[in-house]
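Blackboard transcription, Thursday session:
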Amino acid sequence: MLVQGIKSRPEYKGLEIDPHAKRHLFVLEGEGAKALTDQVEAKGKDFLARSEILYLAGGAAPKAYDAVMAALSPDIFWQAPTLQPMLFRLRACLEQARMGTRIYVAGTEGFIGQIMQVVLEYGVDFNSIHTEHRGSTARRVQCVHCKGITDDVTTSPFACTHCGLSLLVRDHYSRRLGAFQGVNIDAEEPGTAPQPEEMFP
Amino acid sequence: MSLSTDMPVRVADVTQVTDLVKRFRFERLDGQPMPFFSGGAHVVVSMNDNGLLRRNPYSLMSSPDDNSGYDISVLRVPNSRGGSIFMHEQVKPGDQLTVSQPVNLFAPDHRGRKHILIAGGIGITPFLAMMDQFSRDNVAFELHYAIRSRTHGAYWQQLLDRYGARRIKIYVDEEKSTLPLATIVENQPLGTHLYVCGPAGMIDGVLLTALQAGWPKENLHSERFLAPPAGLPFQVFLEKSNIHMTVGEHQSILEAAEAHGCDAPYMCRGGACGQCETAVVSSDGMLEHNDIYLSDAEKASGGKVMICVSRFKGQQLVLQL
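(Written on the board underneath:)
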């Protein structure tokens, strides 16, 4: 069960190297590494000398994309163990970045949303940030009742990990929170929620 | 239609700023405060020139904090359609005029961490209000202002006095100093926004230089008001109003419609805002699109026309108006 057709659902238009950019900052997670290597195949390796890559392997660690990207010899390749140091490093990069820098984000939706949250704080218009959804379609969902956020939600409805309410997942998205909005599905008659359906593998 | 909210105003003050620039202060006849506006906003001033209605947009240059009146500056343009000449020669303190509500098509992006303003000549006016706002909000900005000569340039000395030489850079054509565009757009911190207002050639140059330096188009803002260009007279039929009319050599379709009593919507009267977009019912000739609002594809399809600046070559144009 999913409520679709809501305008706030983000669109990820795909990475496209901007030929005018003086510097490229890639912020990638898991399978998002493939979005970069696909660009290298399509556009050649020239842009790598002006590129900084921040990578969080996450669940894709066994695929060793880190070794593939390091072997491409970008200007800087840096790997984060978890999301928190990734966000910290990203802030440091943005603090120093100049206007000719283009930002490319690829990975799961939850990852893209949390990176966008940081980038937007730096006065970057979100239309100028390139994004590509790769990997799992699991969602990051905020419970509109207790405001708790649950990562990697794969079913709808699902039980809020904070307050336990059964939440219907909708396409209603908050860019500020980097999360979809989940609403209690059986508020009128508690206990009548339909069975969770696997929707976001 | 768009203007049931026009405000009758009294000309409170007229100041000769330079040989060719006059400043006008407007206050409301009923003594009420003016609506607040934001930096970059303009008003459309309606003038009654011996029975001929003239309407010109002018940027508001006074402080956005000050709702006791509005200031505009008008450059005298000798070979123009007459609005600026009328303002310079006819309008005296105590006269009555009508101004529209303020409209902002050139607002600063407040998410920006730094703002670079580039002005050419009279293009300085929207930035005067913007800088007042930036300065009040303690937001980083710098102005690069190109003028022909120190006697022709308006307000440059006051700006230097008020904001200092770190934030205000003046370039004087007569002294062979020119805008160092490539240097200005280089090495600016992420989250900088750039705004340009001035002659068309200068705007194009600034935007191109910034794009080539790797700026995303989302951070580039420009304001160009186009005066409706003159051309051969042509016939227009307004279908909904059932009016046959001739658009004169120095008239726009919008002005002709107004002269025939048709209350067409408009906002900027300069081909920028899209308010006066009108559907074309039929046409047996060539539309001359002079606006910067419609996309190239829309212009080519011929289904719409911006009646404030665009013209027509042919026998008959039928508009849904």
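Lecturer's comment: Chain A has a mean pLDDT of 95.
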